[in-house]
């Protein structure tokens, strides 16, 4: 009777074709569930307005109703209801996460005493040491209005040596997180919201110790001690790289080394991510199994794979703690834990089901990670490797034997991972390392075979005083990686700079990659269609004709020879972002030295920085002319169009783009950001 009812639903229901297709997905449904959850999260972040409490209640009722329909309908239609319920649940989970991380944001510019506990040390784009503080105290600011965290760059004389857990104080300039540098650009306000950063700034005075008692955890102290030990044992930049690999401290790596690693597509070796966690867990797993295999009695009578996985899992937990538990490391740990868990329960470790489960856990824990490059690149690479090696595993296994098989596997894995992550890296960073495959073929084996095992063995032998030899081996391996990076970066055309695409491109690539990973058989090939469409749209994307910074201190006009900038100095981050998004790798000084272009349709404008000059110009300006200034005008409204600091604080950055009918459209950052909690 139940079977007949299900058949009637399939015949008469509104989702006949879809339900029939979904009915054939038995055993392959987990990737689609993860996809539905991610689509719900993506929909939430794409909304122009934050859902109201009433809307959230409706969403919750929809989840309950769809779940009930899923239980009643147990065929393809039931799975469709389940996907819809998971989609809505993803939207609600993202909204809940937004409310959980909500905290005070500095509403104005602040100058005064800043006191707090150091929770993170890194470097700014200018190379200055940068501290993230929590348990913050600000002079004259009530505790309930004080941000949970602030970030301060140190530009003054040396003071107290910063160390995680120390409570320090200084005098700093603080500002609320800035909006996108251009409409539709990277939304730093949203990023800061989910990092609980309520203010950012800089200090030009020495850092002082506010309390002799460290407030950090034992793990933070251990991380600092290990980083210092590695720097002392391994000289120069190689010791700094070792500290980054083991505990995630990249604050001491020289800028030229970092840039060489980026240009050669080896920057991922500095971030504790899936590669590091995979290499470490794989080394421990293989070592334990190898030792147990020395005894035939144990190897034949006991489940050594399960024992090895049970030992590798605590090692992964320890590495997560020592690395600082960053978002990328949490994601890598979840993926490694899911794989090891699959081994323990007797399932395939590397399967699309395991990748989907890991994605669900990561997204449930941090829904905002979906829109970040780390999540997209990690799961694109992992999913592509699972698909590629799954396809090869059904072919003749002779290629996997011996040294030749190892070389083919290395070449294939580097090529597949590079092709999978390349589009996402290009979209987010506007650059492609053209020799990245060669660089990874030369460097990644050294990282896996020498650097990671040597560092692990050295840390194990450190209490016994026997760490010199393994640390020396790690030093040679890191030195080789740096040499490879510098050689590749110095080659002509090593980096291809690309203009930022339109907003449609990233979702299309995502749809294509998800389809190729979740579908089965030849239907995976359909995923290439949205990818090709994304490439076509990217080729047709045009950059704004004119951009105006949120501060009002910088404007830029695009021409065939590149973007002209109104200033050679000041607003450096904004200028670098514009030029990077243009695919134009020149300095701000060079861009400002270009001849100012004359573009049809653009208004006549002037950027005025002096208050006295502003008063004079506004008295004589004419209708239609734009006056852009970082100052605030409190006088009578002028005849011209005035964008002062007060107006730009409401609109954010501006862009002027040409329309097909020849008109020029003005877009604002606030317009594209929408009315969301993180938009001030």
From TrEMBL:
It comes from the Bacteria. It comes from Jannaschia aquimarina. Residues 55-190 form the DUF4131 domain. The keyword Lipoprotein does not apply. It holds the Pfam family Competence. NCBIfam families: ComEC_N-term (TIGR00360). It is a multi-pass membrane protein. The chain crosses the membrane at residues 30-47, 54-73, 79-100, 266-286, 306-325, 370-392, 404-429, 441-462, 469-489, 501-518, 525-541. It is found in: Cell membrane. Keywords: Cell membrane, Membrane, Transmembrane, Transmembrane helix. Its main location: membrane. InterPro entries: ComEC_N, Competence_DNA_uptake, DUF4131. GO terms for cellular component: plasma membrane. Residues 245-519 form the ComEC/Rec2-related protein domain. This is ComEC family competence protein.
């Amino acid at each position: 009777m139940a079977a007949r009812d299900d058949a009637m639903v399939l015949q008469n229901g509104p989702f006949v074709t879809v339900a029939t297709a979904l009915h054939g997905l038995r055993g392959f449904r987990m990737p689609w569930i993860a996809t539905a959850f991610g689509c719900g999260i993506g929909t939430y972040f794409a909304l122009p307005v934050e859902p109201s409490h009433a809307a959230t209640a409706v969403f919750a009722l929809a989840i309950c109703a769809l779940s009930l329909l899923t239980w009643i309908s147990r065929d393809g239609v039931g799975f469709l209801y389940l996907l819809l319920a998971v989609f809505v649940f993803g939207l609600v989970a993202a909204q809940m996460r937004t409310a959980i991380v909500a905290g005070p944001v500095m509403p104005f510019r602040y100058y005064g005493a800043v006191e707090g506990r150091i929770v993170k040390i890194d470097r700014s784009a200018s190379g200055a040491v940068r501290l993230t503080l929590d348990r913050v105290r600000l002079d004259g600011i009530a505790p309930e209005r004080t941000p949970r965290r602030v970030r301060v760059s140190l530009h003054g004389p040396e003071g107290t040596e910063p160390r995680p857990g120390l409570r320090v104080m200084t005098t700093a300039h603080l500002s609320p997180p800035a909006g996108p540098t251009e409409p539709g650009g990277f939304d730093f306000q949203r990023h800061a919201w989910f990092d609980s950063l309520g203010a950012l700034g800089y200090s030009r005075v020495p850092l002082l110790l506010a309390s002799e008692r460290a407030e950090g955890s034992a793990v933070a102290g251990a991380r600092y001690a290990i980083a210092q030990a590695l720097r002392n044992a391994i000289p120069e930049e190689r010791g700094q790289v070792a500290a980054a690999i083991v505990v995630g401290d990249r604050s001491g790596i020289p800028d030229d080394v970092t840039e060489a690693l980026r240009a050669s597509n080896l920057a991922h070796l500095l971030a504790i991510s899936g590669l590091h966690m995979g290499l470490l867990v794989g080394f421990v797993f293989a070592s334990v199994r190898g030792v147990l295999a020395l005894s035939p009695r144990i190897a034949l009578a006991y489940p050594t794979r399960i024992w090895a996985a049970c030992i590798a899992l605590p090692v992964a937990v320890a590495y997560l703690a020592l690395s600082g538990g960053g978002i990328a490391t949490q994601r890598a740990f979840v993926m490694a834990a899911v794989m090891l868990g699959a081994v323990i329960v007797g399932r395939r470790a590397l399967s699309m089901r395991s990748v989907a489960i890991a994605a669900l856990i990561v997204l449930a824990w941090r829904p905002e990670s979906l829109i970040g490059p780390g999540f997209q690149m990690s799961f694109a690479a992992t999913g592509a490797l699972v698909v590629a090696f799954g396809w090869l595993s059904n072919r003749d296994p002779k290629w996997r034997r011996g040294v030749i098989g190892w070389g083919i596997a290395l070449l294939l894995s580097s090529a597949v991972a590079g092709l999978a992550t390349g589009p996402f890296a290009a979209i987010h960073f506007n650059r492609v390392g053209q020799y990245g495959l060669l660089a990874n073929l030369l460097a990644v084996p050294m990282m896996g075979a020498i650097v990671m095992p040597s560092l692990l063995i050295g840390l194990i032998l450190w209490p016994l005083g026997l760490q010199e030899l393994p640390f020396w081996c790690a030093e040679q391996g890191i030195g080789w990686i740096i040499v490879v990076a510098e050689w590749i970066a110095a080659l002509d055309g090593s980096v291809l700079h690309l203009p930022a695409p339109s907003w449609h491109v990233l979702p299309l690539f995502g749809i294509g990659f998800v389809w190729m990973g979740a579908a089965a058989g030849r239907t995976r090939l359909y995923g290439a269609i949205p990818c090709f469409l994304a490439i076509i749209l990217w080729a047709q994307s045009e950059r704004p004709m004119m951009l105006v910074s949120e501060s009002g201190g910088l404007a830029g006009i695009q021409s065939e020879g590149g973007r002209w900038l109104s200033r050679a100095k000041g607003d450096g981050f904004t200028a670098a972002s514009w030029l990077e998004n243009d695919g134009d790798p020149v300095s701000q000084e060079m861009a400002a030295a270009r001849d100012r272009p004359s573009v049809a349709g653009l208004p006549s404008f002037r950027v005025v920085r002096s208050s006295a000059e502003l008063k004079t110009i506004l008295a004589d300006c004419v209708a239609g002319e734009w006056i852009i200034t970082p100052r605030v005008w409190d006088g009578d409204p002028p005849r011209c169009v005035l964008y002062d600091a007060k107006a730009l604080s409401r609109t954010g950055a501006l862009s002027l783009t040409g329309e097909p009918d020849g008109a020029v459209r003005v877009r604002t950052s606030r317009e594209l950001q929408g009315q969301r909690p993180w938009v001030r």
